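fyi for ur records
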Amino acid sequence: MTRNDSIEPFRLGAFRTLVVALAGAAVLCANAPALARTKAKPDAASAADKKNDAKKSAGKPEQLGSYGDWGAYAATGKDKTCYALGSPKERQPKAKVKDTQAFIFISTRPGEGVRNEVAINLGYATKDGGAAVADVDDDKFELVTKGVNAWVKNPAKEREFVEALKGGAKLLVKASSAKGTATVDSYSLKGLSDALARVAQECK
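which gave:
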């Protein structure tokens, strides 16, 4: 499956264990994806490829700091990964998403030449290739869904999206489940700019 009229494929994801810093001082254990763009289609990954991805991401994450509603982390494995992580302040409709967890993962992997790659975990199954929207203080960016994740539909817009996030106050992620249930996740962007600055310092 491809994006943008078959110009560029979806990016693959593999899960790793993270320590998630939530607003305030709460710290929970959760799973978050080590998400990377690839030039292969998602359904082309072999079991061996997935196993190798898991090995590469085996490094234990370390919290670098907590900044407002965001945390900065680093994980050292075969390749070092630094990332900012945030969770929604509110999810709607509550009855449909009360048992799911969502987060945004903005990663930097200097070994791969990747800076500020954005992945949004919605916490539920979506329609592959489905449409979603990220609204940063009324500035809208198109997303595309795959599995439980959403990505910036046009990778050329990713840097603009990150800059909007850094300068914004509130992010709304509007998406739909595979069953057609519409959801809205509301994120505070307080502290994100500082978290990304710490990520950039750690993963130069």
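The chain is about 15% helix and 45% strand. thats all i got for now
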